[in-house]
Write a structure and sequence with these properties.
This protein is mainly alpha-helical and 215 residues long. It is 64% helix and 7% strand. It has a two-stranded antiparallel ribbon with strand order 1-2.
Length: 215
């Protein structure tokens, strides 16, 4: 079936990014404080100044999923979405896939929040929710062949590798990068990646069983 929700999510993220680029608040960074997920604000430890307050803190869990910090951030996320999400949407159907995607994003967000509930650094990006898609793909399609670009010095080679190995390597890499990252400033929200991946693995078992009961 045509993955309409996957297309909708990709187009939404791209359009919102283009709108970001034309926003003065994006250039100053205020946009991320208004719509990004800030752990200390979500947990009630801090409050945003009135000039930055746009939506309730709990809604930033969702608004943050559609914001990106830059072009490469957006491009990387949309590439993973394009490769893996259509199969999961085909497994679940459009409505259930959208619910699954949002719940994966919630799981990813809370994993990042619980790492440091007093953090004042805004989190943005679809990476956590997409991590859930990757976790679901690992469960439903572990033997699917994924085309991977492998660099060999000055040359590169396209090789088809089982999804089990590709996604397993990605997951381990998140742990390695997370342990090496300093907690003093901003950067990649590896805890959200890990939390989203694990959330997706758990959620897909529920959604698979729900679909079997319906059919």
């Amino acid at each position: 079936n045509r993955p309409v929700v996957t297309y909708f999510l990709i187009v939404s993220c791209v359009l919102i990014f283009l709108i970001q680029l034309g926003s003065e608040s994006y250039k100053t960074g205020q946009l991320f404080y208004s719509y990004g997920l800030i752990p200390s604000v979500l947990m009630g430890h801090d409050q945003l100044p009135l000039d930055l307050y746009v939506v309730p803190a709990y809604l930033t869990i969702f608004s943050s999923m559609f914001l990106h910090g830059g072009f490469m951030h957006l491009a990387g996320n949309m590439l993973y979405m394009w490769i893996f999400a259509d199969n999961i949407e085909d497994n679940l159907g459009p409505k259930n896939f959208l619910i699954f995607y949002l719940f994966s994003g919630i799981g990813a967000a809370m994993a990042q929040v619980l790492m440091d509930t007093h953090s004042q650094i805004p989190m943005v990006g679809a990476s956590g929710a997409i991590g859930g898609v990757l976790g679901a793909y690992l469960i439903n399609h572990p033997n699917a062949r994924v085309l991977v670009l492998i660099p060999f010095g000055f040359f590169s080679q396209l090789i088809k590798i089982r999804a089990l190995y590709v996604l397993g390597f990605w997951f381990v890499l998140q742990f390695i990068n997370s342990s090496m990252m300093s907690s003093d400033g901003g950067g990649v929200a590896y805890a959200a990646h890990i939390g989203g991946f694990i959330s997706g693995m758990i959620l897909i078992l529920f959604f698979n069983r729900k679909k079997r009961k319906i059919t």
